[in-house]
UniProtKB/TrEMBL annotation:
InterPro entries assigned to the protein according to its UniProt record, in alphabetical order: Homeodomain-like_sf, Recombinase_CS, Resolv_N, Resolvase-like_N_sf, Resolvase_HTH_dom, SSR_resolvase
Annotated TM spans: none
The keyword Transmembrane helix is assigned to this record: no
Xref: Pfam families: HTH_7 (PF02796), Resolvase (PF00239)
Organism: Paeniglutamicibacter antarcticus
Domain Resolvase/invertase-type recombinase catalytic: 3-142
Protein name listed in UniProt: Recombinase family protein
Entry superkingdom: Bacteria
Catalytic center residues: 11
């Protein structure tokens, strides 16, 4: 008798798979036939529960997932998986694919799976292209793209302080340095504190200390 083998996946251990589990059980999957990967990205080649789910499949069985992204693979890999399951005499069923329940065990389901998987990959490529385009525009405009902040020397901060003292707007000086005005003022305050400590240290040095003389033979 053919069985439904359910597979669920959450990318972080903090996420709950309850919704996926409920949907799989409602679709007819038995609890004993549920396999769940927790805290594992779909991009990883090794997914223990997924591998066990595939091993549990026998001829006539169907692998059931809630959505296509639970498989977490590229279109080429997803289509190859569907073909691999077909060659083994098993099927793939996606409960929510393009707004409907798609089973590759049927001619219509197989066609819909191929088309929808290709569309999903195309949408991903469009999003990636938009992100790359946005980053390029922001970089060309000189906007902050995040990442590690550059380090500023005391000399640069001291020079910025002189510019502000000469009448230049602090906002403009900070912008030219690539930092916020608040950060610039904080760096200036830190520099002045260091200078004050250094001055006090020098003032407390004993005066009239004789210079060291070299021993002459």
């Amino acid at each position: 008798m053919s069985k439904l083998i359910g597979y669920a996946r959450v990318s972080t251990k903090a996420q709950a798979a309850d919704r996926q589990v409920d949907d799989l059980l409602a679709a007819g999957v038995r609890k004993d036939d549920l396999y769940i990967d927790r805290g594992i990205s779909g991009a990883r080649a090794s997914r223990p529960a997924f591998d066990r789910a595939l091993d549990a499949l026998h001829e006539g069985d169907t692998l059931v997932v809630t959505t296509l992204d639970r498989l977490g693979r590229s279109t080429a890999n997803m289509l190859a998986l569907a073909e691999q399951l077909k060659d083994r005499g098993t099927n793939l069923r996606v409960l929510n694919l393009g707004g409907g329940d798609v089973d590759t065990g049927t001619p219509m389901g197989g066609m819909l799976f191929t088309i929808t998987a290709a569309l999903a990959q195309m949408e991903l490529e469009i999003k990636r292209e938009r992100i790359n385009d946005s980053v390029a525009k922001r970089r060309a405009a000189g906007h902050d793209l995040g990442g590690r902040r550059p380090a500023f020397t005391d000399s640069q901060v001291a020079n910025a302080r002189r510019l502000i003292a000469s009448g230049q707007p602090a906002t403009h000086v900070a912008r030219d340095l690539g930092m916020s005005r608040a950060t610039l003022y904080r760096r200036i305050a830190d520099l002045e504190a260091q200078e004050w400590v250094k001055t006090r240290h020098m003032e407390n040095q004993p005066k009239g200390t004789p210079a060291r003389q070299e021993n002459k033979t």
